[in-house]
């Protein structure tokens, strides 16, 4: 019984101090702090307070007609920021047509919003490898 109450209290305190991250359609999170996850479009992810390193990519579907469509994908990008307890963050994308999305996918810059300004660092895989060997 004591173990159950401790576990219940720990989970309650985590949820009270957790931050949330809302994702726009077209953003797919692959991992958070090294833990692989799978997210659905327009989903919300719960984050612990503190440093967050998120691997993500742009992945969107454009439909031209009844049977014509195109997926537009970026490579994996890394986003790093510090999450504050009870804060709500949003990763947002600009409104884009398919041509704009193709250009965006080549060099995506993800925007993050919160109730206070969020300091975000972003790298693609090549930039991250370069940073490791500086």
UniProtKB/TrEMBL annotation:
Protein known as: DUF2057 domain-containing protein
Family: Belongs to the UPF0319 family.
Keywords: Signal
Signal peptide boundaries: 1-18
């Amino acid at each position: 019984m004591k173990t159950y109450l401790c576990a219940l209290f720990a989970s309650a305190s985590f949820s009270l101090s957790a931050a949330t991250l809302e994702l726009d359609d077209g953003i797919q999170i692959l991992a958070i702090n090294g833990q692989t996850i799978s997210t659905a479009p327009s989903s919300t992810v719960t984050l612990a307070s503190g440093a967050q390193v998120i691997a993500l990519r742009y992945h969107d579907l454009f439909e031209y007609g009844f049977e014509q469509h195109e997926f537009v994908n970026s490579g994996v990008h890394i986003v790093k920021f510090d999450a504050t307890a009870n804060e709500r963050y949003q990763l947002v994308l600009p409104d884009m047509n398919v041509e704009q999305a193709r250009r965006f996918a080549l060099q995506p810059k993800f925007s993050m919003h919160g109730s206070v300004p969020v300091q975000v660092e972003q790298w693609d895989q090549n930039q991250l490898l370069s940073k490791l060997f500086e």
